[in-house]
Amino acid sequence: MENGRWSLGLIVLAFVFITSSSAEFLIQQVTESKVSSVSETEYNSSYNLNTNLGVTSVLREARPSSKIVTITRFSVIRERFEPYESSVFEAAGYKWRLILYVTGNKADGGDNHISLYVRIEDTQSLPKGWEVDVDLKLFVHNIRQRKYLTVTDEAVKRYNEANKEWGYGQLIPLSTFNNPNVGYIVQDTCSFGAEIFIVKPAEQQERVTFVSNPPDNVFTWRVRRFSSLEDKFYYSSEFLVGDRYWRLGFNPKGTGDGRPHALPIFLYAQGFKPNAVATTTWGAVNLRLRHQLGSSHKKAYSAAWYPIRPDYGVGVNNIILVKDLQGGYLVNDSIVFEAEMVMVSVTNIVPT
Predict the structure, then answer these.
(1) What H or E segment, with its residue span, contains residue 198?
(2) Torsion of CA 209, 213, 214, 215, to 10 degrees
(3) What is the reported pTM?
(4) CA-CA distances (angstroms) from residue 316 to 55, 110, 246, 302, 306?
(5) Domain termination residue (choose one: 198, 219, 250)
(6) Residues 132-166 pLDDT 10s
(7) In this structure, are 189 and 63 located in the same domain?
């Protein structure tokens, strides 16, 4: 009889256990179903952003310049699916909010990640058809290292009426973020940030044009009393071709590997004409020592980028040997150099 009572008691306990377990399971299923339904419809229906492509993450010491949000007692919310929306902050002349998902924005591929976005606010005050191009960086503070994980894909984010929110569904894996040895959560505290720079299209551009055979491109320089010249550089007067002044120069005793048996000749870039755009200038020139009794001129071609500073010369150390000057190049103790500018660059500032 006593054994029968024990059997009956065991049957009753088993029935209660099964009933309570089924009820608990049913409640859990209903609760999870409601949570899933709310998260997908109420919080994620507006998101169709692309999952991270080409995103880079690096640590830096400098704090974010636009916004920092610090959450204490993070453990209270670490399992929540709802986004945290920060207060409105101003950056680059516009108003914004930081949007944080501590368990990831599933609609943006954020499963098992922290998701973070920046949304533009107060757009009703902006003109019709507004667009704002932004260089956006998002941050997670590594408290242990005293550095900020900086996340960006280097792509300009265009905010407009159709796209008011940009960011990263996979900002940082939860496995990394929640790891106490890594340092993103210290004493139950963590911080996130944003850096917003407006990218304004340039209204002007610098246009470099190469001009072949520009006007007044031939300059002739007669050097007199050649036999009395000293061992130093002599220079011609300046001549204007394109937007820049130029001059020729040579040393009668030679220079470089041509010294002292050959004559050099160089083209020097000088200053710019009034209102010209001062930039590095391309100069291509045919340098000649003229044969004064015929057409057997000595020729050399030279081309180079000439810097903005004046007196930069390019040419040749040996356009003729000194012993060959008497063959019609040196006449009445004078020689004749010639520069034919075959191409120069001209720079202008024009609208984009």
Answers:
(1) strand 190-198
(2) -160
(3) 0.66
(4) 52, 66, 16, 8, 15
(5) 198
(6) 999 999 999 999 999 999 999 989 999 999 999 99
(7) yes
Q: Which amino acid is located at 44 in the chain?
A: N
Tens digit of each residue's pLDDT (9 = 90 or more) over 176-199: 999 999 999 999 999 999 999 999
Let me know if 283 is exposed, middle or buried by CB neighbors in 10 A (0-12, 13-18, 19+): buried
End-to-end Cα distance, the chain: 102
Residues 179, 324: Cα–Cα separation, whole Å:
85
Q: Which tokens in the block code for residue 203?
A: 């209204």
Q: Which residue has the tokens 């050097």?
A: 223
For residue 15, being part of any structural domain is answered with: no
Q: Are 99 and 84 within 8 A, CB to CB?
A: yes
SS3 (DSSP) at 18: helix
- Residue from 290, 307, 312 nearest 299 by CA: 290
For residues 168 and 246, state if they share a domain: no
Question: Is residue 75 domain-shared with residue 160, that is, in the same domain?
Answer: yes
CB 287 within 8 A of CB 318: no
Q: Would you call 298 helix, strand, or coil by DSSP? A: strand
